[in-house]
Amino acid sequence: MSTHDAVSVIAAKRDGHALSDSQIDWVVDAFTTGAVADEQMSALAMAIVLRGMDRHEIARWTQAMIASGERMDFGALRRDGRPLRTVDKHSTGGVGDKITLPLAPLVASYGLAVPQLSGRGLGHTGGTLDKLESIPGWRADVGAAEMMTQLAEVGAIVCAAGSGLAPADKRLYALRDVTATVESIPLIASSIMSKKIAEGTAALVLDVKVGSGAFMKSIDDARELAETMVALGADAGVETVALVTAMSTPLGLTAGNAVEVEESIEVLAGGGPGDVVELTLALAAEMLAAGGVDADPATNLANGRAMDSWRAMIAAQGGDPDAPLPRADHQETITAERDGVVSRLDAMGVGVAAWRLGAGRARQGEAVQHEAGVRWHARPGDRVRAGDLLFTLSTQTPERFGAAREALADAVTIVDDTGDGVSDLAGPLILDRVTVGT
Ligand code: URA
């Protein structure tokens, strides 16, 4: 018979107390088995959002979520008889964030193993699996044995995380999503790190987003989230480093599914938008360093090895890397109303528009439109003339155009072109680097 009950745990946090180890272990376990009801866990999540958790509570909560399920172990991975080091990357989520697509094969092309267990999109941020599923034949569900074989032979895999990894987080995340309790440093840090530690990667590079299109709106909060996750990783023996990167402007020139795959392939072919290339190379450099590889990641983007690795990764999961990507039957455009310089392109507005066009889902389990998305033709710092193309909207369901246009109504600011300082409007992309002890 337990000495705990849900109401007293909720009340303790509501009143601003730190939860004890045994309260945390009990409540996470009881929630996983169904003994603590969804409405009780929702109330506790809200109390955590409002009252916070100290580092010890966060670490214990993370451990309890890991203990709710199975742990994977890549220790037996070998190539040519030699152990393969695993390095993973995780982004806290942003608009147009397709970086995993070029990054995983790029890093694998240097002989490291990249087990990228990913999720599907919910709300305005896209999901990596939804994007890759726009490639004809590609499948996200891969069994554990197949995963090991693909990692040993190809080096990179992007697939669905099995339901056995941190099941407490899966249930809790679904609740948080519908109870306005996502934006909390303790809850985000423990959610992400429980999955990554359970996944068993040896090293981890985090991309912590900050800005209007991210969960963290201020640089101080983003730094605190980064420090919290880096410390959780280090405690669990996972070598962890974080980059804090800007997410007020969406990444690249596209948000959606097939359109983002297309843009990623451009990067793998040695082209693509400058910001996507910059972030891919910065994260790759961290992953190579964490994996003990001394190399410049730009080399394998330029010489085609990263593209070879991409093709092998897609084909290994049933995808046809040469098949044409789906295109939408319906397109509309939005043009500039005046001459000037773009001073702002709002990531949230773009993300919501792509979502409303059908690229994302409003409820778990809904189908997404692979063809749907937004392409933008100007970024902060670009000069435009009245009538120039700002956005192309694509969908299979044209009745969605109105709602998408509404989301974009205030997404772009065009100011007078004063001639100087225009190039600074884009702002820096990589804002900070956080390691243990920083
Ligand atoms: N991604 C996660 O996996 N969990 C969160 O809480 C937020 C983003």
User: How many domain regions?
Assistant: 3
The CATH topology name of the largest domain reads Pyrimidine Nucleoside Phosphorylase, Chain A, domain 2
Count the DSSP helices: 16
Report the portion of residues in β strands: 15-25%
**Mind telling me which CATH architecture of the largest domain this is?**
3-Layer(aba) Sandwich
Structural class, from secondary structure content?
alpha+beta
Mean pLDDT: 94
Helicity range = 40-55%
What is the distance, rounded to the nearest whole angstrom, between the alpha carbons of the first and last residues?
44 Å
For this structure, what is the CATH class of the largest domain? Alpha Beta
Query: Which term fits the overall shape?
Result: globular
Radius of gyration: 22 Å
The poorly predicted ranges are none
The order of strands across the largest sheet is: 3-6-7-15
**Number of DSSP-assigned strands:** 15
At the fourth CATH level, what is the homologous superfamily of the largest domain?
A: Nucleoside phosphorylase/phosphoribosyltransferase catalytic domain
Write up what this structure looks like:
The chain has 438 residues and is of the alpha+beta class. The protein has helices at 6-14, 21-33, 38-51, 55-67, 100-108, 128-132, 144-153, 167-177, 185-199, 219-235, 258-268, 274-290, 298-302, 305-316, 347-359, 401-408, and strands at 78-79, 82-83, 87-91, 114-118, 156-160, 203-210, 239-246, 254-256, 330-335, 340-345, 373-376, 383-384, 389-395, 412-415, 430-434. A 4-stranded mixed sheet has the order 3-6-7-15, sandwiched between helices. Strands 8-11-13-9 form a 4-stranded antiparallel sheet, with helices on both faces. Helix 15 (347-359) runs antiparallel to helix 16. The N and C termini lie far apart (44 Å). The mean pLDDT is 94. Bound molecules: uracil.
